[in-house]
Amino acid sequence: MLRGNYSAKIDDKGRLKVPTTFRVLVQEQHGSNLYVTSLSGESVRIYPMPVWLDIEAKLAKVPSTHPARARFFDRVNYYGQAAEFDTQGRVIIHPRLRDSAGMSGEVDVFGQYNYLEIWNHDRFLAKLQREPFTDDDARALSEFGI
Length: 146
What we know:
The chain is α+β, with helices and mostly antiparallel strands. It has helices at 20-30, 49-60, 67-79, 95-101, 121-130, 135-142, and strands spanning 5-10, 15-17, 33-37, 44-48, 81-84, 90-92, 105-111, 116-120. The protein has a six-stranded antiparallel beta sheet. A two-stranded antiparallel ribbon has the order 2-6.
């Protein structure tokens, strides 16, 4: 399971140096092939390829005319590209997504159970301010015993 967060750096060529703890876990459990994408363009999601293939298999069961399916594919394909860890544990964030998500310099890498999410640090702090954890959120999670 991928959890917690680490700071990392995007170099001048758009490569993210994935924190060792996350990289080792992903490679041991899933290999080096990845799918790098976003739903909103505000952040970057890095899925181990087997995890991404499971998502695609689930989506294959949704009718192709379903509007949510179409919108999901529009976004993840617009921002997405297959990738892999290089020998130094880096992953290329392609220019379209890098520009949209403000990926440069220091970034935050979050473990999100079975994928990684990368945020520009300032954008993530603004998101926390804009979207506080509410009592409604706490009630919703309590329905799941959390």
